[in-house]
Amino acid sequence: MTVLEALKAAEKRLQAIPEPRLDAEYLLAEALGMSRLMMLVDKSRTLTEAEAAAFERMVSRREAREPLQYILGSQSFMGFSFKTDPRALIPRNDTEALCEEALRHIRPGDAVLDLCAGTGALGIAIKKLCPGAAVTATDISEAALSLAQENAQALHADVRFLQGDLFAPVAAEQFRVIVSNPPYIPDALRGHLQEEVEKEPALALFAGEDGLDFYRRIAIEAPLHLSPGGWLCLEAGDGEAAAVAALLKNCFTDIRILPDLNGLDRVVSGRLEASIQGTPFP
Ligand code: GLN
Fold first, then answer.
1. Taking the CB of residue 107, how many other CB atoms lie within 10 A of it?
2. Domain span at 31
3. Which of the four pLDDT bands, split at 50, 70 and 90, describes residue 158?
4. Among 145-154, 176-185, 267-276, where is mean pLDDT lowest?
5. CA nearest 241: which of 253, 261, 259?
6. Rounded percentage of the chain residues whose pLDDT exceeds 90
7. Domain tally for the chain?
8. Are 60 and 83 in the same domain?
9. Fewer Cβ neighbours under 10 Å: the N or C end of the chain?
10. 174 and 84 belong to one structural domain
């Protein structure tokens, strides 16, 4: 079987997914241990038995709607390659808009908190792109944190990881910038999402009846953990940006809503009101 024949057969089997040919190409390149473009240069190359078997296993997993990134084991975010597996949510390209907004407010020397860090993509990318920042990343999931730690090690990023519910692990600390992509999908959508998304950790996705549970908690608790004039930068779910901005109105100023790569309102940021001096719990 040649590369071309393998791709055609897989494309047929993967017809139910959105981009069957592209996924087949990524999977075969992974099975062959080469880049997609190098593979496509020689489509008449014959697969070895081991390569064909490895490809077959990958296509079967994808046919069962396992996310492509869990099969490939990595996803690029802000130009860095992050290891991905079911321990944490897969980094989304749309979240790069959040990372860029946070970076606009971060200066060398700043203490930065990545809340609900998952794979660690946000905190690690921030540390890589602003090495002078002191980055802390927290998550309630031990499993997610172990993956985040592996990512930090692989990317040589000196990030402090702490396990716990939202601000609990940093109870007495303040930060210049807090960035978070918290869970934000309404509970009622469970079982109705894209099949691949349902294979990601529920803990990373669902956030109460209206999807705003974590924003409510963050809007109340973040002021206690921001230094004077500090910034809060949040990712918002589809259609949620205005509601998130409204939650910040009491304690924050300069509130901005920014779009993602698809032009959808995705990021909400704001600066702690000068009159509000965060006092962490003694
Ligand atoms: N962006 C993810 C999705 O729409 C959800 C991530 C989250 O809840 N923070 O599938």
1. 10
2. 3-64
3. very high
4. 267-276
5. 259
6. 97
7. 2
8. no
9. C
10. yes
